[in-house]
């Protein structure tokens, strides 16, 4: 039975949105998933999401993803550690996953999964990123995002869209001895590492199930190809993006220093 209590609004920081989108764009063949962490205003039923955890997929599927109890436990521990570092109450507030090449709307499986989590936390929320959806008119791919909860309709479970606001990350978060900034960098840098570990685990299972040397060589070749793809299509672009971000930050620092000197002279 789903509680009548439900979310009114979700506020998502731009940094978390960037991590989720980059994660969703890493593959167009399987769905990806992760968990959302932040603070919640219980009285106003508003979630403030300011962090996320990228989950390791033990089973890659093009049409569904699942979160194991172990991963929920790990994410809860991560939220506690983050709360201690930032000296703020943090907890797991929701989950996100991707819909490659299909619409952004949640399936019956997604709605059922969301309903299950709401039995534990009525303010738990789900985000879905639709990626690799091409628009013939614009000749470009689109990224769409929906924020939803589940509720019991007259005959079956239905979805309820929740207002979503994407805001820039508060500057004060970056002044806590750089802890928030370091967390964002760790979230980005861990993405290629997690994808590589998924590929290694997947191919190790195949190697353990075969005794044929030729098949083993074939699997090794595909593993190498997959790892090269991750490095060239994920890790290197992320490095380039972070370098450009560093240049922009340094330019901003110089501009502010120049403005400070000007104001001090006057």
TrEMBL record:
Keyword Membrane: no
Key words of the record: Coiled coil, Hydrolase, Metal-binding, Metalloprotease, Protease, Ubl conjugation pathway, Zinc
Pfam families, sorted: BRCC36_C, JAB
Coiled-coil residue windows: 239-266
GO molecular function annotation: cysteine-type deubiquitinase activity; metal ion binding; metallopeptidase activity
Domain MPN as annotated: residue spans: 10-147
Domain of life: Eukaryota
Stored Gene3D superfamilies: Cytidine Deaminase, domain 2 (3.40.140.10)
InterPro entries: BRCC36_C, JAMM/MPN+_dom, JAMM_MPN+_peptidase_M67A, MPN, MPN_BRCC36
One GO term (biological process): proteolysis
GO cellular component: BRCA1-A complex; BRISC complex
CDD domains: MPN_BRCC36
Family affiliation: Belongs to the peptidase M67A family. BRCC36 subfamily.
Protein name: MPN domain-containing protein
Organism: Rhamnusium bicolor
